TrEMBL record:
Its EC number is 3.2.1.-. Keywords: Amino-acid transport, Cell membrane, Disulfide bond, Glycosidase, Hydrolase, Membrane, Transmembrane, Transmembrane helix, Transport. This is alpha-1,2-Mannosidase. It comes from Triangularia verruculosa. Disulfide bonds join 429-472. Residues 608-620 have a biased composition (Polar residues). InterPro entries: 6hp_glycosidase-like_sf, AA-permease/SLC12A_dom, Amino_acid_permease_CS, Amino_acid_permease_fungi, APC_YAT, Glyco_hydro_47, Seven-hairpin_glycosidases. The active site is at 213 (proton donor), 362, 486 (proton donor), 535.
Length: 1208
């Protein structure tokens, strides 16, 4: 064996000869080549094709999710020219094309895992999307940690808490994940991490830390971050670390400070490092276990970090101390290169004879070959030690199982001369990839075979690597969850077979629970935990890169699916390790291991989503805020927008009762209590009922579509996000801004109306006083968070519902003659003055007003992102809200039509849309001679107006925050504090309420009419976009080969209902344009009201889009034009928003094949178990279990209740 000769200072890292020998790390093929070198294209990815020098920390190569050349990737719509077809035909064709009617459908087998790519072939695009899923898992994990346990060393995702290992924390998770953040280009998250490092991290702590763990995670993480930030500054670029900036050497300075303290561990009598170090006292501490011995694996896995630090600082002592450890280990003269797992720091001698490649032994063997490669093959002694150890493994530890003859690496707990234990830790699965790496020298197998140095020994090593990889994969296949146990035992003959014995394991793993191969495996209950370890996925990556065999990449993807399916924590909690991975649902540990972020998702060997790898090179993509420059133009990143809205930081605290009342509170207000009077005058009682019933049908279809989308994608922004995802980002931009502005302007209007309502009791008090009170109350309620808002709306809506029910009962009594003033009324007013007024135009006028009376019903979809259990609460809320509102409106308005004639003079003189004097409800009560109830109804109107104002802040702030998350609004609007409140968006929306101080003007609402007119049709456009998004969603679902059974909630109206809703919304718009351009001509409402009109007052047209429900006095053509633009100015505004964004970002309609059906989608395989009302964690189960749970629940219900559940 070669002697240990420590090089002068350190090896030459700039020697030109390194270029050839760095082939392990450099890209050796062009961008269009198939997998070649194990790290083919790795350096090209981050250095533009130039060969880069060896990254010195943890030998972690690089791979990135590919950037996109542009949004969508689809072609533009080019309609064919038809000589005989007019504009109408073109519009219809365009609409059909937009909804995917002309797209080709792909046939194929659909499965619940289709969205993971199963059955989708092995196309390049499919693998690129899979790689993106890995990046998303990283983002979700990091965001959960950032929200619930920021700065903590431990993160417990289920309990949403963290814990420090030492008093001030070590940055255990943050530092270990730095290079992952860089390589995945997560700039904003990296900036937050750097800020924590600069301000909060300190090593000056009187605490004992583990030498090994602190070195590989803290020191290694900092050095890796320094290497990437200096060598590849374009990755997650941050100005603070640029040359000459204050933070240029932040990582290196922190690393050097820590290393100086850790060097105290080497100050043992022998030079073998102590197990622990006191950071403040610079003092090594002997192990308190194992008779004071240190772990062999731990002491021999410090070399990469300290040698690289020597290179960076020029301090040779770092190199010397680390290298001496290897010399001491070798001087012990271990038999056949196999070292016991303990070594005394005091004497430098081994302790015991326990030989294993699992815990406490693994890293020693792994880093032999990696040190050889790290030092540019300048120290061949490490290669010699590796091959000596590998032959020892063959001789003493390799054997075969029975009956299926799998290859395993066992243990010799009592020495090489004693019995072989068939125990194999998951940690041992680093061996297949490491063996293949050593056998090929980092080249592909094909390239290595072509070298003259290839021998039969290399051939045998590759065969051993394949067999061990097969066994490691079997450890995953054996478990119920598909996630390997920490330790697996195997059945072997009493006399273990030698490595040279003939053997042939089954090529495939039969899924039959009674399959023969399962007899070879044995997992004991105490060993069934899964700690999210990276060893197997790392080896799979090496094996795929080296051999080019697709099965290794497929296995990696199957493994990733299992992690997503069984370790994901509900409500954005990230992922947890498991205490029992062999049962479904699994038992969780409520702990996210730091190496889940640093290694498993990033692989210690390849980084950034190479869990599934890629056969081609691609540029790193930028996540950022959702949009960036590309090719000197502007680019909208729809994937990032979807990801951000899916991983919202909003607090999920809304329950089902909150959701139902939020929708009711947002839509039962002055539109019902007051503006219905103007509608009654315009069309008569029959038109009133028919129009509202018509709109109820339209909204039934619309809300069913929204319910399906909101359950599948309970994302922030809801409808605007759906337009961005399924239609066109430009449309999502225009819809979102128009909807947010609609509610923002609605706020001061409601506050003014509330202050005017108070005039009923306090006529001579300045309205500004009440504006201040109402605005302050609304702001305070919303600052209490979504839970406070939900509770407030629950109370407000309860009051309104009680008032409506009370009026319905009272109205029935009045109509049948329960009060002497009127006697029996019956249908008298349907005969005189009649059931209809102003013919079809009167009906259309009500048609428009009725639509706006329902504005706010869609808020339940917006609230889905903050619901505790959207899968359960949203469908119920959607159905019940619709029926309740429809029945409340239809029944109460039927009674209004029976009790108040449409020509009643009091219906015509409203000062504002909330003027109780013109409320048909108040008129009906007063006509019966009841004196106290009008005051009560006025109070109800006040509460209704206040409730709508409260909803205005909620609707606008959540939409603005979601727009910011998508990159369609200033980023600061997306700020969400630790309590899950979009604080800045709430404050900005509340600032619009200051316009309420216009209340003391003579005509305060008219000042706001033009502001509200800019967004007046927003609800109609929003409802239409919901229907259109649902149509496109269903079409994309079919084109991508998905099954409807994978959706946990389906629209009862189906796609046909969405088409009906879309058409009806279109008819409402047409009716609106018609009645605005050609309003009902000014006529006297009633001869008895001649005195009122003799003073020059004219018939006023209801103009609900402007929000005042009273209208514009029509005196001539100028007033007609004024009225038209007041009601229709929203249309050009929306078109300008849409066209401007489309031109600026060059967005395209999202192609059906590229619609993102995965990001943020709630899985159908989640069942929420409850034990006597106590909330328990949600476990992922199979679809059959979910369906069985539903069927069991329904079977226990009587028929009437099942019908009720279907309808409500």
């Amino acid at each position: 064996m070669s002697s240990f000769s420590i090089p002068k200072n350190v090896p030459s890292f700039s020697n030109p000869q390194r270029q050839y020998e760095d082939r392990l790390w450099a890209a050796a093929t062009n961008r269009n080549s198939k997998p070649g070198n194990i790290l083919s294209g790795v350096q090209d990815i981050i250095s533009g094709g130039n060969r880069a020098s060896l990254p010195m920390y943890k030998d972690k190569p690089y791979m990135y999710p590919p950037g996109r050349s542009g949004y969508g990737g689809g072609g533009r719509f080019r309609p064919r020219r038809k000589r005989t077809l007019g504009l109408l035909f073109l519009v219809v064709v365009a609409l059909l094309w937009w909804t995917g009617m002309f797209s080709e459908q792909q046939e194929g087998v659909t499965t619940g895992w289709r969205w993971w790519g199963k059955g989708a072939g092995k196309s390049k695009a499919n693998w690129l999307k899979r790689r993106e899923r890995v990046v998303e898992a990283m983002e979700l994990s990091w965001d959960a940690y950032e929200r619930y346990a920021w700065g903590m060393d431990e993160f417990h995702p289920e309990s949403k808490s963290g814990k420090q290992m030492v008093s001030k924390g070590l940055g255990w998770i943050i530092i270990d994940s730095l290079d992952t953040l860089m390589l995945m280009n997560l700039t904003s998250r990296l900036s937050h991490a750097r800020e924590w490092l600069a301000k909060d991290l300190t090593w000056e702590q009187d605490e004992y830390v583990n030498t090994f763990e602190t070195t590989i995670r803290m020191l290694g993480g900092l050095l890796s971050a320094h290497y990437l930030s200096t060598t590849f500054p374009e990755l997650a670029p941050i100005a603070d670390d640029d040359p000459g900036k204050p933070g240029e050497d932040l990582y290196l300075e922190k690393a050097k400070d820590l290393a100086d303290r850790l060097m105290a561990a080497f100050d043992s009598p022998s030079g073998i490092p102590y197990a622990s170090v006191n950071l403040k006292e610079f003092k090594g501490i002997i192990s308190h276990a194992d008779m004071g011995a240190s772990s062999t694996a731990e002491t021999t896995t410090l070399q990469l970090e300290f040698k690289y630090l020597a290179k960076l600082t020029g301090e040779k002592d770092f190199w010397d101390k680390a290298e001496k450890v290897m010399q001491l280990v070798d001087d012990n003269g271990a038999e056949d290169g196999l070292v016991p797992i303990f070594i005394f720091a005091t004497t430098g001698k081994f302790h015991g004879e326990n030989i294993r490649l699992g815990s406490r032994g693994d890293s020693y063997y792994e880093y032999l070959i990696k040190q050889y490669l790290q030092t540019n093959k300048k120290e061949p002694i490490y290669e010699e030690m590796w091959y000596e150890a590998l032959e020892g493994v063959r001789k003493h530890l390799v054997t075969y199982t029975e009956p299926s003859q799998f290859t395993i690496i066992g243990e010799r707990p009592n020495g090489l001369k004693k019995e072989l234990s068939p125990k194999m830790d998951h940690l041992v699965c680093f061996m297949p990839g490491t063996i293949a790496l050593a056998a090929t020298g980092g080249l592909t197998e094909k390239e290595a075979r072509g070298l003259p140095t290839w021998t039969d020994k290399n051939e045998a090593d590759m065969q051993l690597a394949r067999e061990l990889m097969h066994t490691c994969w079997g450890m995953y296949k054996y478990m119920a969850t598909g996630l390997a146990a920490e330790i697996t035992y195997f059945n072997i003959p009493k006399e273990p077979l030698p490595a040279s014995a003939p053997h042939q394991a089954p090529a495939e793993f039969d899924p039959d629970p009674e399959a023969e191969w399962r007899k070879d495996f044995d997992v004991k209950p105490q060993d069934s935990h899964n700690l999210q370890r990276p060893e197997t996925v790392e080896s799979l990556f090496y094996m795929w890169r080296i051999t080019g065999e697709e099965k290794y990449r497929d296995w990696g993807w199957e493994m990733f699916k299992s992690f997503m399916n069984y370790t994901a924590v509900e409500e954005g909690g990230g992922f947890t390790s498991l205490s029992n991975a062999n049962i479904i649902p699994p038992r969780t540990r409520d702990n996210m291991e730091s190496f889940w972020l640093a290694e498993t998702l990033n692989f210690r060997s390849n980084r950034s989503s190479t869990l599934v790898g890629s056969g081609s090179n691609a540029s790193p993509g930028s996540r950022g805020g959702g949009q960036k420059e590309r090719h000197a133009g502007h680019y909208f990143d729809v994937r990032a927008a979807n990801l951000n809205t899916a991983n919202t930081q909003l607090s999920r605290e809304l329950k089902g009762r909150h959701l139902q009342m939020i929708a009711i509170g947002g839509s039962i207000g002055a539109g019902l209590f007051v503006a219905s009077g103007a509608s009654l005058t315009a069309g008569g009682p029959a038109s009133l009922i028919l129009a509202y019933a018509f709109i109820a049908v339209m909204l039934y279809c619309t809300m069913q579509a929204l319910g399906e989308l909101a359950v599948a994608f309970p994302v922030a922004g809801s409808f605007s996000a759906y337009s961005t995802r399924f239609l066109d980002p430009a449309l999502g931009f225009s819809m979102g801004w128009n909807y947010a502005l609609q509610w923002a302007v609605c706020l001061p209007l409601e506050i003014i109306a509330a202050s005017m309502t108070v005039d009923y009791w306090k006529e001579h008090v300045s309205r500004s006083v009440f504006v201040t009170v109402f605005l302050a109350c609304i702001v305070v309620i919303n600052l209490f968070g979504v839970k406070g808002y939900g509770e407030a709306e629950f109370v407000f809506s309860t009051v309104k519902i009680i008032a409506i029910i009370g009026f319905i009962l009272l109205g029935i009594v009045i109509n049948i003659g329960g009060f002497p003033n009127e006697g029996y009324i019956g249908g008298k007013y349907w005969r005189d003055p009649g059931a209809f007024n102003n013919g079809f135009k009167g009906f259309c006028t009500i048609f428009v007003t009725a639509a706006f009376a329902f504005t706010g019903i869609e808020l339940v979809g917006l609230a889905a992102a903050e619901a505790v259990h959207p899968r359960k609460s949203i469908p119920k809320a959607i159905k019940q809200v619709f029926w309740r509102i429809s029945l409340f409106y239809i029944i109460s308005l039927t009674l209004i039509g029976l009790l108040v004639p449409y020509n009643h003079p009091d219906l015509l003189g409203a000062e504002s849309f909330a003027d109780a004097s013109s409320s048909p409800f108040v008129i009906a009560i007063e006509s019966a001679g009841i004196s106290i109830l009008p005051g009560i109804m006025n109070a109800v109107i006040l509460i209704a107006v206040f409730s709508v104002g409260n909803s205005a802040v909620f609707g606008s702030s959540r939409t603005l925050a979601a727009m910011a998350d998508q990159g369609q609004a200033p980023k600061f609007l997306g700020y969400v504090d630790r309590r899950g409140r979009p604080l800045i968006a709430i404050l900005i929306t509340s600032a619009f309420g200051l316009l309420g101080y216009l209340a003391d003007m003579q005509h305060p609402t008219r000042v706001l009419d033009w502001l509200l007119a800019l967004t007046g049709l927003s609800s109609i456009f929003t409802w239409a976009s919901i229907c259109l998004a649902h149509i496109r969603f269903r079409k994309a679902w079919a084109v991508q080969g998905r099954s409807l059974s994978d959706l946990s909630c389906l629209s009862q109206a189906g796609v046909a209902g969405s088409w009906i809703g879309l058409v009806l919304n279109g008819l409402v718009m047409l009716a609106h344009f018609w009645t605005a351009a050609w309003p009902i001509p000014p006529t006297l409402a009633d001869p008895n009201a001649a005195e009122y009109f003799a003073n020059g007052h004219y018939r006023e047209v209801p103009t609900a889009p402007t929000g005042n429900g009273v209208g514009v006095e029509i005196r001539g053509a100028g007033d007609v034009a004024h009225n038209f633009f007041l009601q229709c100015s929203c249309v050009p505004v929306i078109l300008v928003f849409w066209a401007g964004y489309k031109v600026w970002y060059r967005t395209k309609v999202v192609r059906l094949e590229e619609v993102d059906l995965d990001t943020g989608r709630r899985r159908t395989d989640v069942v929420y178990f409850n034990d006597h009302g106590r909330s328990l964690p949600a476990f992922a189960v199979g679809k059959r279990d979910l369906e069985w749970e539903r069927e069991r629940e329904l079977r226990g219900m009587p028929r009437w209740k099942r019908i009720y559940r279907f309808l409500c």
